[in-house]
Write a structure and sequence with these properties.
The protein has helices at residues 47-57, 99-113, 122-129, 143-146; strands at 3-6, 9-13, 30-34, 38-41, 65-69, 72-76, 193-199, 221-225, 241-245, 253-254, 258-259, 266-267. By secondary structure, the protein is of the alpha+beta class.
Length: 272
């Protein structure tokens, strides 16, 4: 895996109060100070990488995954990460993986690479997705330059709402197919929603302000960020959050890797 170093810094997290597209869970906008640099994998974990993990460990992911078709969202008892209901190659992001599946992969990969891997905190993800608080695109039509979203390719096929651009993919796309974001990270918007370390919380009222993950005893529901090829649950915005039971598997959910040690990672284009 290739990593990019994300510099420490202070930034504002959450939606502006006057944002008409914001949801209550995106408020209040608050200052976060990340004291130390960290690293994120440049791409989402691919199906090929997950297949190597399964082959090496005999890890079993039971069948059953929520999938989106022309008929809408349905639970398929037969769908798996190997066959999520649409065609993928090993270069596509792995989907239909629960949070526990992701953590099992991270433990195995960490032992293999003699380091410690984890999921990013929500704040770390947010900080890495933008530069100086801004999204990398300036108009909705530019979103397709940066990610695989619910665009005109999908219109009238699996969704009724589409972004005013075309990325050429109906379902997932190969990782790193689109332009990288400000720090050299791919697919920070679109392709698949990404598991984070944070326990879901109704809003940011008591959110950590040091970049760490929000935790709660006996947590079962977690925060995902980044949107997907479906754009659910609304227009593409970097602030949008999705809450999901940690045991669920969906064909629009995957993950990327974080680690504490940023010294052996490349400096991103947006780094000082």
């Amino acid at each position: 895996m290739t990593f990019v170093s994300i510099p420490a810094g202070v930034f504002y997290m959450g939606a502006m109060h006057h944002d008409p597209a914001a949801s209550p869970d995106e408020w209040p906008r608050h200052e976060v100070q990340i004291a130390d640099a960290y690293a994120l994998s440049t791409t989402l974990v691919t199906r090929g990488a997950f297949a190597a993990f399964v082959a090496a460990t005999s890890y079993h992911v039971p069948p059953g995954c929520w999938t989106l078709t022309e008929a809408g969202w349905n639970f398929s008892a037969r769908a798996t990460w190997r066959n999520p209901g649409f065609e993928q190659t090993d270069a596509h992001p792995v989907v239909c993986v629960s949070r526990a599946d992701a953590l099992s992969f991270l433990h195995w990969a960490g032992v293999r690479d003699q380091t410690s891997y984890r999921l990013p905190s929500e704040a770390e993800w947010d900080h890495a997705a933008r530069l100086d608080g801004a999204a990398p695109w300036h108009t909705p039509a530019q979103i397709c330059d940066y990610g695989n979203v619910n665009d005109l390719t999908a219109k009238n096929k699996v969704a009724k709402v589409a972004e005013p651009c075309e990325d050429g993919f109906l379902f997932t796309s190969p990782v790193a197919h689109f332009r990288a974001g400000p720090y050299g990270l791919y697919d920070m918007i679109g392709n698949v929603w990404e598991w984070t370390e944070d326990c879901a919380h109704d809003d940011y009222t008591q959110a950590p302000v040091d970049g760490s993950a929000a935790r709660r005893p006996h947590c079962t529901t977690y925060v995902l960020r980044g949107h997907s090829w479906t754009d659910a649950p609304g227009p593409v915005r970097l602030e949008t959050r999705l809450f999901l039971d940690g045991t669920e598997r969906q064909s629009l959910v995957g993950f990327r890797v974080a680690k504490e040690n940023a010294t052996d990672a490349e400096a991103g284009p947006g780094a000082p």
